[in-house]
Design brief:
Layout lengths: L3 E2 L4 E3 L4 H4 L9 H8 L7 H4 L14 H16 L3 E3 L5 E8 L2 E11 H5 L3 E2 L6 H14 L1 E2 L3 E5 L3 H11 L5 E4 L5 E7 L2 H12 L4 E5 L1 H17 L11 E8 L5 E2 L1 E5 L7 H8 L3 E7 L10 E6 L2 E7 L14 H10 L14 E5 L3 H10 L5 E5 L4 H9 L10 E2 L10 E2 L3
Parallel strand pairs: 6-11, 8-12
Antiparallel strand pairs: 1-5, 2-3, 4-5, 4-10, 5-12, 7-21, 8-11, 9-10, 13-20, 14-18, 14-19, 15-17, 16-17, 16-19
Helix pairs in contact: 4-6, 6-9
Length: about 425
């Protein structure tokens, strides 16, 4: 079963929601966030990236940063920028990006189910990033960035959500990136019960994006339980802020690679080694993204090449080994270019598919990088198969779009 809980969301006033809502904390660096928020008193970046209100040389992980985040949240509430709902609610959040629409349920998901792997993961986390998000939650006493969950679509849930979205929304705006964001408040007790009843029938939920935020929620829950002699399991810290989408609405883009050098090889030597595991087709000055799995596009010396993995270079029955990110790593990046742990190796970088092939070409032609690889996107079915098998994906396997805005709904831990 999947236990989800309504909560008293803290939300921006309708007329300023567009000014408050911000990109997630981890898609902007501090300088970008500072620039974006410098003339916007309402920007949620003051809460999610509070270092922007401190001197630029401030250590991002100092206590001062988390204290500033808590101070800014308190200010937003005191000034009436953010207001808390009087009763526990669910919220329905729709995003439209071009021709793609996805509609998710904003709810509290169970930390207990996360810890029991009833909410399945597919990525490893880093202790330093977990610690950062845990401190942010601890100091603010609130979860400000939602975890992106998915589930195998259920027609009955779709029907309820569609009924809700036929009503007038609470928020409806188009952000600077041309993505339309719409929010409905679900405060009808019977409707809330219906939604909970259908989710209880689900075997599992899956973390799509937000592994560090969910791990941080688990850490904080354990701390709060240890500090609370009257713990009963119903406290708000037992649940974490999520937006839950059906799997058939997920949009995963390619997550591409750029590499600084050819590991001491000449271009001709490199191409000969690549041909040992891939069919190589010279495409010339123009190329399109890969059209199917196990096909890649490579950029080298201002020329594009199509690569197709040879049979036998991966295990089609192994859900991790058959991923294109694994095929490229196991047959080219590691053995030919000597790329080690991609989480730590400074010779490789990653480019979200939203930036297009032009960004790969730019990074190479600037001289910063030597070669680039465009991949076919990982599918949601691949993600679920890996999570179901209890395995983990290689780093930077999925790039979800559109990104969830922060600040539209906040989950307080003491409401």
């Amino acid at each position: 079963m999947s236990v989800i809980k309504p909560f008293k969301g803290i939300r921006p006033k309708t007329e300023i929601a567009a000014k408050v809502a911000s990109p997630p904390y981890d898609v902007l660096n501090s300088n970008e966030a500072r620039e974006m928020a410098k003339e916007n008193h309402y920007s949620f970046l003051h809460i999610n990236k509070p270092e922007i209100d401190l001197p630029p040389e401030t250590n991002l992980y100092s206590e001062e940063v988390y204290q500033k985040g808590a101070e800014n949240l308190k200010r937003f509430i005191n000034e009436g920028i953010l207001i808390q709902d009087e009763k526990p609610c669910f919220y329905v959040y729709r995003q439209i990006m071009g021709g793609h629409s996805q509609i998710g349920l904003v709810a509290g998901a169970s930390v207990d189910e996360y810890q029991k792997d009833l909410i399945k993961k597919h990525e490893l986390t880093r202790a330093d990033k977990e610690e950062d998000r845990s401190k942010h939650v601890k100091y603010l006493n609130a979860q400000t960035g939602p975890v992106f969950l998915t589930y195998k679509a259920v027609p009955e849930i779709d029907a309820i959500i569609n009924k809700i979205t036929a009503r007038a929304p609470q928020n409806d705006f188009t952000a600077d990136d041309n993505i339309k964001h719409t929010l409905w408040v679900v405060n009808d007790d019977e409707e809330i019960k219906q939604i909970q009843s259908h989710f209880e029938k689900l075997d599992y939920l899956y973390v799509a994006d937000g592994h560090h935020r969910s791990a941080a929620a688990s850490r904080v829950c354990d701390m709060r339980k240890a500090e609370n002699p009257n713990h009963n399991g119903a406290e708000e810290y037992n649940f974490f802020l999520t937006v839950i989408f059906p799997d058939d609405q997920m949009y995963i883009m390619d997550y591409n690679r750029v590499v600084k050098d050819l590991n001491g090889l000449s271009e001709s030597e490199f191409l000969e080694k690549v041909k040992e595991k891939f069919d190589v087709n010279h495409l010339g000055k123009e190329a399109s993204k890969p059209a199917e799995k196990h096909n890649f596009i490579m950029f080298l010396n201002d020329e594009w090449y199509g690569l197709k993995a040879h049979e036998g270079t991966f295990d089609p029955q192994n859900p991790v080994d058959r991923l294109d990110v694994s095929i490229l790593m196991n047959n080219l990046l590691r053995p030919i270019l000597n790329i080690g742990d991609p989480r730590k190796d400074k010779r490789i970088d990653f480019v979200g598919g939203i930036r297009g092939l032009g960004e790969l070409k730019k990074r190479v032609n600037s001289g910063e990088m030597k070669t680039a690889f465009a991949l076919y996107p990982t599918s949601i079915e691949d993600l679920m198969a890996i999570a179901d098998a209890g395995k983990t994906m290689p780093p930077k396997s999925t790039w979800f779009e559109p990104k969830l805005r922060s600040g539209l709904v906040i989950h307080a831990l003491d409401s």
